[in-house]
Design goal:
Helix content: 25-40%
CATH topology: TIM Barrel
Bound molecules: D-mannose
Number of strands: 12
Distance between the termini: 20 Å
Oligomer: single chain
Number of domains: 1
Shape: globular
Length: about 350
């Protein structure tokens, strides 16, 4: 297993490569091209420049999060073939620079969603918060999109700056004809075109679960539980068609038993990337994120790491969303300090599990 750290690039991240390099156990960063128009090809020159910056900083660049999928592909519009061609070309270009895993999602219109980005916990730390009853009050999705961006401390927000804002009303209209079955159909079309390219160039595709893992604003969501993810894995039965096991996204539905989901997909060799974080579930549809430690949230992180170890996990793991602590200002969920603490805690669990495993 390799521990990696998400980084948004020299112009888009308050956290420097120098600081990331000083976190024990972290070998590389998870990168993206912020602001690159969704659906267009990532050019070799852009990827080369990013790789040089990362390697000059003493870190590896083997994971990309995300190459986003154009809505026309998710909607199954006739224009999708052009975007699929571009997607395939981006994969080929990334492979040329040693990328091994590409994380992406298949959520219609909106990426991860929260009702509050800086909810204060009793200890004064700030976390991301989700309250379904607040989301239900939002009648205009354009307001949702602008609030997410406005509350981001001016930072580029993963998944929310993709230039979709102008098209929101049109997109909502187009999705009226797309239910879960149609979305599975369009997803199959995507995978049948893209997985053979991924196989050919040695990139493992790792779909990120929907966050939260249920339908919001009446839009279909299908990457949300073991049964549906199994169906997706079978759409194209290849280890290159794999999963980003995001504990926080899947686990915010208490119906998803994380250790058993991990064992299920881990035993099939389908987990290529792990986002590890903890969440405190107050009641169904109401949760806040928490420090990584088991006692701080609703998940048993030891059992999560144990399930990964037992199924021979050999991919990349990153500490996911941290709290804002110690006066740090930055992108919600992506400060330096709490994610660094998380990396140490997860690394400690892993070392203990590994050593206990050897003595048995
Ligand atoms: C949020 C992230 C997501 C994730 C995408 C992957 O913090 O976990 O934005 O990167 O859904 O495509």
């Amino acid at each position: 297993m390799k521990t990696v750290f998400r980084w948004f690039g020299p112009e888009n991240d308050a956290v420097s490569l120098k600081h990331i390099r000083q976190i024990p156990g972290v070998s590389g960063v998870v990168v993206t091209l912020p602001g690159s128009p969704v659906g267009e090809v990532w050019e070799p020159g852009q990827i080369a420049a990013l790789k040089k910056t990362v390697e000059d900083g003493g870190l590896e660049m083997e994971v990309v999060e995300s190459v986003e999928i154009h809505e026309d592909i998710k909607l199954g519009l006739p224009t999708r073939d052009r975007y699929l061609e571009n997607y395939a070309q981006t994969l080929r270009n990334l492979a040329g620079f040693g990328i091994k895993v590409v994380c992406y999602n298949f959520m219609p219109v909106f990426d991860w969603t929260r009702s509050e980005l800086a909810y204060e916990l009793p200890d004064g730390s700030a976390v991301l918060y989700y309250d379904q009853s607040e989301i239900d009050k939002v009648t205009d999705p354009r307001k949702m999109a602008s609030d997410m961006k406005r509350n981001s401390n001016g930072a580029y927000m993963p998944g929310w700056d993709a230039g979709k804002s102008d098209r929101l009303i049109e997109l909502f209209d187009l999705y009226k004809g797309v239910g879960e079955e149609e979305l599975f159909g369009n997803y199959g079309y995507f995978l049948r075109k893209i997985i053979p390219v991924a196989e050919e160039c040695g990139i493992k595709m790792a779909v990120h679960p929907d966050d939260p893992p249920w339908s919001i604003f009446g839009l279909p969501r299908i990457v949300n539980n073991q049964k549906n993810i199994q169906r997706i894995m079978e759409l194209v039965d290849s280890e290159y068609n794999g999963l980003t096991l995001c504990t926080g996204s899947l686990g915010s539905d208490p119906g998803n038993d994380l250790p058993s989901v991990i064992r299920h997909f881990g035993n099939q060799g389908r987990i290529h990337f792990v986002h590890a974080r903890n969440v405190k579930i107050i009641k169904p549809g109401l949760f806040h994120e928490s420090a990584h430690l088991s006692s701080e949230g609703s998940y048993d992180m030891y059992e999560v790491m144990k399930a990964l170890f037992d199924t021979g996990f050999d991919g990349y793991m990153r500490p996911d969303h941290g709290r804002m602590i110690w006066g740090e200002k930055g992108r919600p969920g992506y400060g330096l300090y709490d994610r660094a603490l998380g990396a140490q805690y997860l690394g400690g669990l892993w070392e203990a599990i590994q050593k206990a495993g050897k003595t048995r």
